[in-house]
Amino acid sequence: VSSLHYQKNFHSLIEAFDGLGDENIKLFLVGEINKNFTNLNLLEKIKNNTNIIFIGRVSDEELTRLYSNAICFVFPSFYEGFGIPPLEAQACGCPVVCSNAASLPEVCGDSVVYFDPYSVEDMRDKIQMVLDNKNLQNELRAKGFENVKRFSWERSAKQIIEIMESL
Q: What is the enclosing helix (H) or strand (E) of 17?
């Protein structure tokens, strides 16, 4: 769930997905294509793999349905200022497999399985680990529901107001 910019690391995700070798698993990519930032080779890889479905932008309701029905959500980003999509997935009960880069460990804590976004092999191994282990999926669901309780728009707004008033 994101744009197809290089920093989002979809090229490594697609390579990791191809290495899974399970024809029954589908990879859904949700987001937008920006002709100035999207790698055209990446688009060709997507078009040439029938198990990769690029959906484009979707409504909030459709995104909720996708998260709720996914075996897991993979967030391969090299850099995020915060990282809302893993939290959205967790709020929908979706286990998360996530890059260990930038702000993501702070946002996700111990509620996800982490991988090195620069290692396709590590990414593939962690995805496979979650796909193969129903107990781990259930554990990540429970931890995800707990993790999202740490965040709210109301709490964030109150903290910003407190900071502004203290100035």
A: helix 10-20
Q: What is the pTM of this model?
A: 0.89
User: pLDDT tens digits, residue range 6-32?
Assistant: 889 999 999 999 999 888 999 999 988
Q: Are 3 and 31 in contact (CB under 8 A)?
A: yes
Distance from C-alpha of 99 to C-alpha of 51, rounded to nearest angstrom = 22
Q: Report the SS3 class of residue 92.
A: coil
The angle that helices 60-69 and 84-91 make with each other, rounded to 10 degrees, is 70
What does each C-alpha distance from 7 to 3, 81, 82, 117, 157 come to in angstroms? 9, 12, 14, 10, 28
Q: By the 8 A CB rule, do 55 and 166 touch? A: no
Cα(3)–Cα(71) distance, integer angstroms = 21
